[in-house]
Design a protein that fits this description.
The complex is a heterodimer of chains A (about 80) and B (about 160).
Chain A (H helix, E strand, L loop, with lengths): L1 E5 L2 H5 L6 E2 L4 H11 L1 H7 L5 E4 L2 E3 L10 E5 L6
Helix pairs in contact in A: 2-3
Chain B lengths: L1 E7 L5 H9 L7 E8 L3 E4 L2 E4 L2 E6 L3 H16 L2 E9 L1 E3 L4 E9 L2 H18 L2 E7 L2 E4 L4 H8 L6
Parallel strand pairs in B: 1-6
Antiparallel strand pairs in B: 2-8, 3-4, 5-7, 5-9, 6-8, 9-10
Helix pairs in contact in B: 2-3, 3-4
Chain lengths: ~80, ~160
């Protein structure tokens, strides 16, 4: 299973989304989520949303190993 | 080279942070400190709206390693003797301190530039997200293009 984390505004639209999922890439996770949660799917497809695997920013086609932590990151606003 | 990175709910003490940077080495000839505060308003499409509080969320673990990378990059670019980065999380009220960057070096140019560079990268890369509470209504802060522009002036080293 892959563990999912949603930060910032994505957390608000993902409150009913699964936090564990079976998938081979972040892009596949995004498509699976979009099927059940259209607004979440729309926001995950925004070009400025980044994805990390085990806390490293990666491409959406990065192959996933079982037990990975995938996080969806909207543009950051710290400081 | 001495580095301190902290993500915490508690406030920080500017005098103590300055003292810490000052005593790192007798070779320190310049200490530049930056403190970011919570404004009591937000500008949205030219309008100025009062805010009640901010809530800061971050990605534990990833934020610390991104801040370390940002500091490492500054250390490769300038001859620095010490760097401190403190970022607060949780609920913060207007006028509270939110972020601190302090840089110690032998000469001022490196300290000024490195402090600015670290802040510009922190604003655009470090995994923090701000939520505004305005009269009981909450919304997430949108990122600003001007912050990306500010970071890009250091891009030669990117």
């Amino acid at each position: 299973m892959i563990k999912l984390l949603f930060f910032g505004r994505l957390g608000d639209v993902a409150c009913d989304a699964p936090k564990l999922i079976e998938a081979n890439t972040p892009a596949e996770i995004r498509d699976l989520l979009a099927a059940d949660f259209p607004e979440l799917g729309r926001q995950l497809r925004e070009p400025q949303v980044l994805v990390s695997v085990n806390q490293m920013i990666v491409s959406w086609n990065q192959p996933l190993a079982a037990g990975s932590e995938v996080a969806f990151l909207p543009p950051v606003t710290g400081g | 080279m001495t580095v301190r990175i902290a993500i915490q709910q508690e406030d920080f003490n500017l005098a103590e942070e300055y003292e810490w940077l000052r005593q790192i080495s007798p070779a320190v000839g310049a200490v530049v400190t930056f403190s970011g505060l919570v404004r009591d308003f937000e500008s949205t499409d030219g309008a100025r709206n009062a805010i009640d509080s901010l809530s800061l969320q971050h990605y534990p673990g990833m934020t610390e390693s991104l801040l370390q990378e940002i500091v490492d990059q500054a250390m490769r670019r300038w001859p620095l003797l010490g760097v401190t980065v403190i970022h607060r999380v949780g609920k913060l009220l207007p006028a509270e301190q939110i972020v601190f960057v302090g840089v110690a070096s032998q000469h001022r140019a490196a300290a000024f530039e490195a402090a600015q560079c670290v802040m510009d990268y922190l604003k655009t890369r470090a995994t923090f997200w701000k939520k505004v509470d305005q009269n009981g209504r909450e919304h997430w802060v949108e990122s600003k293009d001007s912050d990306q522009v500010a970071r890009q002036r250091w891009a030669a080293d990117d």
